[in-house]
Amino acid sequence: MTITLVASSLLVGGFAFLIADKITTILLDSARSDVRQRVTSGASYAAKQVSFYGQPQEAQLQETIDGTVNYLAGGDPQQTSGVVVAITANDYPNDIQTRTSPSANVQSLISPELRAAIADGKVASQIRTGRLTGETTKYLVYGSPVPTRFGQIELYYLVPLGRQDVTAADARATVVATGVALVILLGLLAALVTRLVVNPVRVAARTAQRLSAGLLDQRMVVNGEDDLALLAASFNQMATNLQRQILRLEEMSRLQRRFTSDVSHELRTPLTTVRMAADLIFAERDEFDPAVARSAELLQAELDRFEELLTDLLEISRFDAGFAMLDSEPTDLVPVVHRVVDRLAGLAERVGVPIELDLPGTPVIAEVDPRRVERVLRNLVGNAVEHGEARPVLITLGIDETAVAITVRDHGVGLKVGEEKLVFNRFWRADPSRARQTGGTGLGLSISLEDARLHGGWLEAWGAPGQGAQFRLTLPARAGDRLTTSPLRLVPADAALPFGGPRDGGPLAIGPGTGGALAIGPAPAGDGQRTEVRS
Amino acid sequence: MRRPTVLGALGVMVLLGAGCGIPAASDVRVDGKGGAATEAGVISRGSEPPTRTASGSDNGAFVRNFLSAAAGEPDRAYERVKAFIAPEDKTRLQDKKGSEVALNVVRLREAVYTLNSDSTTTVKIAVQQLGVLRTNGTLAPPVATETEYEFGLRPASFNGGANDDRAGFYVINPPNVLLLSDTALREYYQDETIYFWSSDRSRLVPDQRYRPQAVPVERQVNEVVKWLVGGPSDWLRPGVVGLPDRTELINNATGGNGRWEVNLDMSGDDQNGIDQLITQIAWSLGDLTGQLELKIRNNAQPVVDLGERRDSRVLYPYATGPQRFGVYDGAIHPLDFDGEPSGTVPLTPEANRNVVSASLGLAKDRRILAAMAVTGSGKNRYRLAVGTGADPVAVLSRSGTEYSSISRPVWLRTVDNRPSRGLVVADGQLYRFDEAARMYPVPLNLPSAAVTAVAAALDGQRVALIAGGRLYVAAVNLDGGGVSIGPPRELVTSLTNPTAVDWGREDQLVVAGSVGQPAIYEISVDGALETPLRTDLGAKVTHLTAYPTNRGVRAPSGAYMYEANGVAYRSSPFERIEPGRVRDIAPVPTGVRPSNPSAPFFLY
């Protein structure tokens, strides 16, 4: 609507300008040609009148000039047309006095430029504003040289443009009033259209926004039977179906979580009993048959895993139920890292994976829940050691003003493309057929992700086949802050670029690829040219 | 946000609409060259009086030049005269402005130069006051009575080094008037005749004016129209009408190259009157040719060719050329001269008896107007006899009273069919008479009532009178069937004791009088210009007639005949009118001395 108003205002204004300007031009032109005619005939009359005189000093010359001026002004000094006729003698100021009719001081209205133009023998005109006989008025000052036998005198007509000015102002006022009325009318029309069309659409948009924000009970008002009403009805139908579906899914999800939680709790009690029995059997295994003793050991190990699984399931169900609480406190992360490494040192030694640390020399203080951070780190380092393939695992701790980050880098088989997201899924495995060595529950990374989210932090993974993987945990330095950047890079510095990347110092060849694509690849060896651009 | 934007847009619109009115000031816009320049250079001027130093050390010439100095355009007359006056005495001559400027025209009789011991010269000039030359070109009767002026001369180099002849003189103790000698009037002025309509608007009556020759030719029309607007000379007013009251010339009458524009602010839109005005202007412009465009209050009248207008509207209807007649043995007889037509006497022999002097005229309808002084019942008793009618006139009416003297009667010529009237002097009294010879005294406003001669001008609106030994002119008013004579204007002439007068030209009188001895002069109607015609007459002229000419009729120019001591003479060639010239007379018996023809006159 604003654009409509602005555009129409400009358009109408432009037209108003054109019309008013045209009217003014026509008025001025007609006044000019009228006065020019009078000046020309007046100058020729005056030239005839003064043609008797061979010298400017002749006494009757002044009388003749007086008479001429009076005659050209209409003869009657009382006349009220306002036109002032003047004869001046620029070249003979001492001999010939300026005469005007009706008497007025015209010198102020005759500018030096006009005087110069007429002294140069030209007929010239100028518009000036001044006061001669009545009030201050715009005057069209028209001048013409009057040739005489002794030189040149000048004839001026000073014609008031009051009538033209009033006419132009009237026309202008009319045009402007019409334009304003037109613009106001357009504005009213635009407002009406807005009310009729745009407002319902806007209401619909707001309703849809609220709906998408989760307020599923938002509905549109259905008025009448037009297209908008149809839209509103359809929208309401859609919202109802959506709401029903979502509620159903929520209910199912809730039931599922409840089931998981309940099962976990219900399993805990018999498990405790089983555990106590198994502990007893395990303690007495030396007295049993070696085969039975081996079974007791297996039972003990699987019970440990079962217990771990139950613990993880309960933890997950707590997250799902929204009962997880963050217990933040300022914590130095360096000891946390050391603790985790110490606890996994045995496993690492067993599988022959050296753990390397890259930690700052100063304490890295952040407002975090140390228990959860430690659990996340344990999980990440454990995974790294497990998939380390006897190659070193690097743990790096970084900090900046707003965030702390910990990366865990291994050099195992790595992740395939797309597996960076899948690793956080519950019970996901990279290779289902692979034997579990450390007996992970498959819930560790899911819980770690939830822990990171609970802190308002990020947990991300990077991996490439054959290049190992790197996980990065980024947490805000103060609880509740929003993260924008991480102090450490997700992709490790020693990772190879996609497609092999450029060879060291080798040229790249850019050329047509398959299917019209642009192919970038290593340049053919021995080409000799470092860079070649072909068009 | 939205409201300010809309308001802003509206504001822009209003500004756009309002920004394009008539500007309060603009640049100079040049439309091209102005009108073509009039031809530059000096205006063709006539002669102007010499300057102070022109006379060198000749004090006689200096005085003559001093008496000429005022000649020229009146508005600078004081300036020119003051150039002759010594700087210390310039204030003695007090300036007058505009129409107040008047030049005392004097006839210089005598100049006496007395050299003083301080190397100045006292000049005494004896003058005759001729009149006052006014700015409107008229020579009014004199107002000053001085017959002598006295002033001094001193060499211009009186106070400075060597006495250089070329430095000339200065006038000291100047008279406090502008003096102009009659020779200067003749030399530096052009006498012009302008015309006014007679009071019955039937004829144009001449009025004499003087135009300074310094006035350029281009302004002639302007001057003439101004004179016409200004009205006739005072003495002429009873017989003529001027332009309507409050008539004004709007600015100057302009023109050149055969086209003249006159713009008058005149009341009345009587087309006949305007036509008469055009005729009046055409004749008043003299011999000027070209087109005249008359505008009455900017309304242009049809353009008139001046020459054609003068040709189509003749001044006075002349019937024929002049025929000379004379009185021989109491009867009128034609006079016969070689190369001139001579007519027959338009009277029957019965009527043509006892004639002393006669005046015959041709009226418009070719009627003969005959008026005669005839002998009465006794010696030195005379009557007036008048007869009108077709040629020959047989019946005469005679006046009821006899007079001891009766002059030659004159007819006041008219151009219409009104009864003719004439004037005659009888026993020192001016009478008018009608076609029935009834005579009525005409009162004259003159100090001396003893009228001795009367002459009527061709236009019939002016008369010349001699009364009490002085010469007068006066206007005649014929309105209402009567004849009244306006206030006579005395003419100052060199002639003393004028005895006979007649009109020689429109503005010239032929006067017989005495300058020591009897003489005949041609004198302008204002008396200022005199031309001696004959100065060697042996006897007093008792009878004088002239054939008046005007611009319409040229020949014979200046023809006049007179009678002195009982002998008739004619002019050009000057000779005595012998009895042999008289036609239709019985042969004179040998031995008898033939009587002389007397009282010759022209029939026209």
From TrEMBL, chain A:
Top enzyme class: transferase
Membrane topology classification: Multi-pass membrane protein
Ranges of residues in domain HAMP: 195-247
EC number of the protein: 2.7.13.3
Extent of the signal sequence: none
GO molecular function: kinase activity
Subcellular location: Cell membrane
The keyword Transmembrane helix is assigned to this record: yes
Domain Histidine kinase: 262-479
Keyword Signal assigned: no
Main location: membrane
Reactions catalysed according to its record: ATP + protein L-histidine = ADP + protein N-phospho-L-histidine
Keywords: ATP-binding, Cell membrane, Kinase, Membrane, Nucleotide-binding, Phosphoprotein, Transferase, Transmembrane, Transmembrane helix, Two-component regulatory system
Transmembrane parts of this sequence: 175-198
Name of the protein this chain belongs to: Sensor histidine kinase MtrB
Organism field: Micromonospora saelicesensis
UniProtKB/TrEMBL annotation, chain B:
Protein known as: Sporulation and spore germination
SMART domains (alphabetical): Germane
Region (Disordered): 39-59
Residue span, GerMN domain: 221-307
Keyword terms of this UniProt record: Signal
Highest taxon listed in the record's lineage: Bacteria
Cleaved signal peptide residues: 1-24
